[in-house]
Design goal:
Layout (H helix, E strand, L loop, with lengths): L6 E5 L6 H9 L3 E5 L2 H10 L4 E5 L1 E2 L2 E2 H11 L4 E6 L7 H6 L5 E4 L4 H42 L7 H10 L3 E5 L5 E4 L1 H7 L3 H4 L15 H12 L4 E8 L5 E13 L2 E10 L1 H24 L4 E3 L5 E4 L1 H6 L9 E2 H5 L4 H17 L12
Parallel strand pairs: 1-2, 1-3, 3-6, 6-7
Antiparallel strand pairs: 4-5, 8-9, 8-12, 10-11, 11-12, 13-14, 14-15
Length: 366
């Protein structure tokens, strides 16, 4: 594990966790300690922690119940539970254990501890970035819809009201006529590209386009659909006055500009979202590479649709090309040896009905 400033909260008696403390300190972790549940609540409320580690039984209370308290205060803190028993698969425990990232059986070895901490940190970082991306996209969508629903209604009231409204919008807004020429832009558009308003007026969006990165024939088709009352959304690669190329998200909306039909265009710079997305894609690529090296595969089963989302290497294990087909339970069953199929199905059904994990060895047909 790279020696980074991983913030870990240890909950419990210091004497009983001395070895654990020593192992984590050698890895450069930043440790804080809470002697009991009350101290833990206060520290979690006032500080950020990547990981919390505590015993299954603490102050005569279930550590699994404490995990719920931790998650209520700090939802994205990963939890590692220490237990003297390897059997945590009962229905009640697994129901509660949904808040636990990992369970380590005592005595704790350095190898298992560091592996668990590393995996917990990786899960937290990926989860944090994904959560941030979702929130940003949600905020953008809500903002865009709100602007479309509320602000376009007042454009014809007066020049002054309209000008204040359009310039106070955080997004770039352009008004185009049916020929695609700009007839007005707001301050957001001027800041986004670096040109003056007079420079925009009378031109089309081609001068804002990064060379070779946009399909203008497709854009013309979308403009026509927008004028027919069908809103259009798409990604556009722009180029600023200083030569910087950047991506933005664009929406075409039919409207009126002082009594005349016009195209109202909303745009938002999505450079940061793109960078975050690229990081997530790179992490997914690294995960696929790791699965290839370890001859491992992973998948998620959507119980509503019946679709099984498989990793690339899971397809390869079944003798298929990566993402060759849509995997369903029915198709998955064709790869299982007929003598093992009943056993596999029963294990899956028991796991779903009892909310428990399971391990099974079975043969596949290539």
């Amino acid at each position: 594990m790279n020696k980074t400033n991983i913030r870990i909260l240890l909950i419990g008696d210091e004497k009983n966790q001395s070895k654990l403390t020593e192992l984590l300190q050698t890895e450069g972790c930043l440790l804080s300690r809470a002697e009991g549940i009350s101290d833990a609540k206060e520290l979690l409320s006032n500080n950020h922690f990547d990981i919390a580690i505590f015993d299954k039984i603490l102050e005569n209370k279930s550590g699994l119940k404490l995990s719920k308290i931790v998650k209520e205060i700090s939802p994205r803190t990963q939890i590692i539970l220490l237990t003297g028993s390897s059997n945590i698969s009962s229905l009640q425990q697994k129901t509660e254990c949904s808040t636990i990232f990992d369970c380590l059986t005592k005595p704790i070895t350095k190898e298992n501890l560091i592996k668990s901490v590393r995996n917990a940190l990786r899960a937290k970082v990926t989860g944090d970035e994904f959560y941030k991306l979702i929130q940003e996209n949600k905020k953008y969508k809500e903002c865009l819809e709100k602007i479309i629903e509320e602000r376009t209604k007042s454009l014809v009231e007066s020049e002054q009201t309209y000008r204040n409204l359009i310039n106070n919008a955080s997004d770039a807004i352009y008004i185009q006529n049916k020929e695609g020429h700009f007839i007005d832009v707001n301050e957001g558009a001027l800041k986004m590209y670096g040109y003056t308003r007079d420079y925009f007026i009378g031109k089309t969006s081609e001068f804002l386009s990064a060379p070779g990165l946009n399909d203008f024939e497709e854009m013309k088709s979308m403009m026509q659909k927008a004028f027919e009352g069908k809103s259009q959304q798409f990604e556009f690669w722009g180029i600023r006055k200083n030569g910087e190329v950047f991506p933005k998200w664009v929406r075409f909306q039919k409207g009126e500009f002082f009594g005349k039909e016009a195209l109202i265009v909303f745009a938002q710079d999505i450079s940061e979202q793109k960078r975050t997305s690229e990081k997530l894609i790179e992490r997914e690529k690294n995960l696929n590479q790791a699965q290839v090296l370890g001859n491992l595969g992973s998948w998620e089963h959507d119980l509503e649709t019946g679709i099984i989302e498989c990793s690339d290497n899971a397809f390869r294990i079944f003798g298929l090309e990566a993402q060759e087909c849509e995997m369903t339970i029915g198709r998955f069953a064709t790869f299982v040896h007929e003598e093992d199929l009943a056993k596999v199905i029963k294990n899956m059904e028991d796991s779903l009905s009892k909310m428990t994990e399971y391990e099974i060895n079975y043969r596949i047909i290539l």
